[in-house]
Amino acid sequence: MWDRLTPSQLVELLDTTSDALLVLDRNGRPAAANAALLRLLDAGLDDLDPEHPLLAAAADSLSHTAPGGARLQLQVRRLPLADGGQALWFRDCTEQQRLQQELSEQTLTDPVTGLLNRRGLSVALEPQVSRCRRYDSPLSLVLLELRGDVDDPARVRVSRILKDQLRWADMIGCNEDQRFILALPETRQADAEQLIAKLRERLAAEFASELVDTGFGVAEWRKADNTQTLLNRAAAALAPAAASTAAG
What we know:
By secondary structure, the protein is of the alpha+beta class. It has 7 helices and 9 strands.
């Protein structure tokens, strides 16, 4: 359809829409634009610099600062025209991306493994930490880091092993940065370390022929801990192992 339209026909067709349209002639020079595009530029076509980011758009999307200072996320399409020129079609996806980001932040599960994500685990951990404060009951947190050639199928395999090895009362979370978080209610650090030894052996057998290694950090709840400080201490326990691996 588009390759049968002249520049003027295309601009007339879209001049009442919110999408911005810039028509280039066969030499790549601006030939026409609709009202939405001129609002984006806050200038006329004669003032359009050939190096302007909109004119030079090569990707399927780009960020653009509107005249009022708002940062827009634009979807970009290139449409061939009948006279040998082309049209650049810009659609504002800022609100859509904002809503997707909000939805992502509200999601409690990891899309790959189906486990709790960090936010979901934090929500689930709050009652456990409150219980520790109230009854002085033990709670250990284990951070498992995958290192090496790790893809999504590998993360799924690890999640299955963890589900098989842990108790029903234990909680498993998974971050997108190749880390798993294990929350172990009624568990002292010494018992958590015994579990780590079993997991290390099981994972080593699972990835025996692959370039995948594991690191562990563990922290037991203390009276001054909240959910974040407990996570931080588990991460700090993992850091020396990660540093020594990198140094080697």
